């Protein structure tokens, strides 16, 4: 079977924990190289995972003709620079969420990849899990009645780790960027339209470079449907998505971190409750395989690169609302 040859830009923990093992376990991919600005670090990473090549710079990896695609798990403020550099080098790109620091940057990235003729995808692995498509089918079927509300929560307590890059404002730190993107992207997908307005209240912590360590908000969609959400890096761990209709509900828990042992859907209609699953699917592997098949022209992307721009518009509005302490109407 043909293989998509991957390179990893950087040695981030998410690559070690999830994406590298997923590529290794995938049907379509192989890991060819890993790059770091510290060559010894890259060498150690290559040895740890049995990766054939290592590089002492990102530029060296991008110049390697044996690399077809790159995964970019770098800090948020570096996404634009290295996505555009990778596109110019003819590499397909899987970039960690959020795609950029703002919607304008995201649009530049999308345009650069389109011009270069390469595939760009935002690394929202949860959206590649089959239960997400199944939720959309259940909602569309009318089983839970008319859609009325969505509730999404994603919090964890990382406040004690003051060296965390997610607590550096200039690098794109903050809970909305890190975990708020999940319920926001899920609501847009489920409703199927872009939101009309947002109101967000946030804790900008002086102890953590004034990034938003906690945020709670209301996202308004047409027809009276709304997402209520909270997200943050200074609260007890929670990870849940609830879709509410006039006749029933759908609950995913854990919602944005499914695993093979815990990836069910609970549907309640009237007095009846059923559980669908478990599916036994690794969402990171599914993401890797779908990416390769898009590159090869065998499948259409589940989500367009432009979708990432729309999600960044919503993040921009959420941050603006929190900072200004007022409702923000989206154009």
From TrEMBL:
Pfam family, one: GFO_IDH_MocA
InterPro entries listed in its UniProt record: Gfo/Idh/MocA-like_OxRdtase_N, Gfo/Idh/MocA_domain, GFO_IDH_MocA-like_dom, NAD(P)-bd_dom_sf
Domain GFO/IDH/MocA-like oxidoreductase per the UniProt entry, residue ranges: 133-251
Keyword Oxidoreductase: yes
Gfo/Idh/MocA-like oxidoreductase N-terminal domain ranges (all copies): 4-121
Keywords: Oxidoreductase
Top-level lineage group: Bacteria
Entry GO MF terms: nucleotide binding; oxidoreductase activity
Family the entry assigns: Belongs to the Gfo/Idh/MocA family.
Name of the featured protein: Putative dehydrogenase
């Amino acid at each position: 079977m043909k293989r998509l040859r991957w390179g990893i830009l950087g040695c981030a923990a998410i690559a070690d924990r999830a994406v590298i093992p997923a590529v290794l376990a995938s049907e379509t991919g192989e890991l060819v190289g890993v790059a770091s600005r510290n060559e010894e670090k890259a060498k150690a990473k290559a040895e740890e995972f049995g990766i054939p090549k290592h590089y002492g710079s990102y530029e060296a990896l991008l110049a390697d003709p044996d690399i077809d695609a790159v995964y970019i798990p770098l800090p948020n403020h570096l996404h634009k620079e290295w996505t555009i550099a990778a596109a110019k080098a003819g590499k397909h790109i899987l970039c960690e969420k959020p795609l950029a620091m703002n919607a304008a940057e995201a649009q530049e990235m999308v345009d650069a990849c389109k011009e270069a003729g390469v595939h760009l995808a935002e690394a929202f692995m949860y959206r590649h899990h089959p239960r997400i498509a199944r939720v959309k089918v259940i909602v569309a079927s009318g089983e839970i009645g008319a859609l009325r509300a969505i509730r999404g929560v994603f919090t964890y307590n990382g406040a004690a780790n003051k060296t965390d890059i997610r607590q550096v404002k200039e690098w794109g730190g903050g809970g909305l960027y890190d975990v708020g993107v999940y319920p926001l992207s899920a609501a847009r997908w489920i409703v199927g339209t872009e939101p009309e307005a947002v109101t967000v209240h946030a804790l900008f912590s002086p102890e953590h470079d004034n990034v938003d360590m906690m945020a709670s908000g209301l996202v308004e969609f047409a027809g009276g449907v709304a997402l209520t959400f909270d997200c943050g890096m200074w609260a007890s761990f929670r990870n849940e998505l609830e879709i509410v209709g006039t006749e029933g509900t759908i609950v995913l828990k854990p919602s944005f971190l499914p695993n093979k042992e815990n990836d069910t859907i609970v549907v309640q209609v009237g007095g009846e409750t059923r559980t669908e699953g478990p599916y036994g699917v690794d969402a990171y592997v599914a993401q890797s395989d779908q990416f390769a098949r898009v590159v090869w022209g065998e499948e259409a992307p589940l989500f367009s690169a432009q979708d990432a721009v729309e999600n960044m518009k919503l993040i921009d509005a959420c941050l603006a609302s929190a900072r200004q302490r007022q409702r923000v109407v989206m154009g």
